[in-house]
Structure prediction request, 191 residues.
Amino acid sequence: MARPRAFNESELLQTVMVAFWRHGYGATTYRSLETMSGVGIRSLANTFGEKDELFTKALAHYRAFVAANLANNFNPPSVDAIVRLFERVSSPADGDDPRRGGCLMVNTLFEIEQPPDAIANEIAQYRDLFRHAFQQSLVADNVADPETRAEFLIGVLWGALSQIRLTKDTAAATPITTIVIETVRSWTPVN
Prediction:
């Protein structure tokens, strides 16, 4: 008879997600996760599978976390919601805040040159969250060419997040976010 789990799987997945976010795929091992979580390697592997499977589940958890934040921020969709998002990107983050490392998905693109299909799929779905939110917001405020501008916004957002990753400081994104905010505000038609 199997022993009941002595840990909450959802809480453990949160811990695992933050570990990958802070340290990256390569530096996060089952041994380091055991130390951080207090859950044994065997239990981690039995619960989540091999490291790629665990990482894919952590990415899905991260995507769900970001999706919930986007749903709040873009309710209702608007240019102002886009501005709030870019203000948040460069807002200060204290020493424990994993945002100081950038974005788990963008970091994954830097770290894993040719991600397996499951990981690539998570990244694509994550990108679609932003494309959809940006595009809906631009349409809601009657901004011309919302599809192209949404793609532009994804590009500059990921560029800003790359700057954070490189410097470990959210303020590094400020030059990009300041210009993007000015640009986005200029797109709103004058009534």
Observations:
- The radius of gyration is 18 Å.
- The chain has a mean pLDDT of 93.
- The longest helix spans residues 117-140.
- The CA atoms of residues 138 and 145 lie 8 Å apart.
